[in-house]
Amino acid sequence: MEGSVVFSLWEFFKMGGVFMWPLLVFSMAAVAIVIDRALYLLRHDLRIDRLAPQVMSRVRERKTAEAALFLEPLAARSMGARVLLTLVNHAELSEDRLEKTVETKALSCVNSLEAGFNFLTAIGSLAPLTGFLGTVSGMIGAFRSIAEATEVNAQIVANGIYEALITTVFGLIIAIIAMTSHYILTSVVDRFALRTEQTCSELITALAMTPRNGGEDRGGGGAESSHEN
To answer: Which of 74, 181, 193, 213 is 20 to 30 Å from the Cα of 136, by its Cα?
Structure first.
């Protein structure tokens, strides 16, 4: 387009002034956290529903040792397997104690999945504030130029405001990326937590309804139970 001026990204960066540097740090941190968390979620299978049917069939037969052998090789790469392994390894606890033990393990897994999420929230809040601060600083400089100019025209005012608003734009872009990523990642983890809670509740109920001497028992717990009775 005739008469238009095209700026490179670096030129825009320089026009934004000193506050563009903290915005650059925020953007790099946000991208690094998002990539790290996305790869972490991909490496650790969160589909606990794939494991539930096979574990449930063994639990109903009280074959907790067999269920543990099935889950142990999967625990390194599957968060769901880790939680279910804790459940079958402590199957002989009372229902209340078993629920608390499994809940603690599930919470530990969820916390490991959500590591870094708070930083995304902080970046989403700090980036636009830093951008606004840069804009205010730029506006101060623009009005100072106007005050020092012998002749004030629209171009002086427009250029000063134009440069001042650059930090706001960059700050808002960073905040949008950080908060959108946080929402997506949080949704994935929340869905895993909900499915884990439902699956573990069903398994604990199945354990409670299955007689202790109804099948193979892990660690001879059934014999101990019979002796106590």
So the answer is: 181
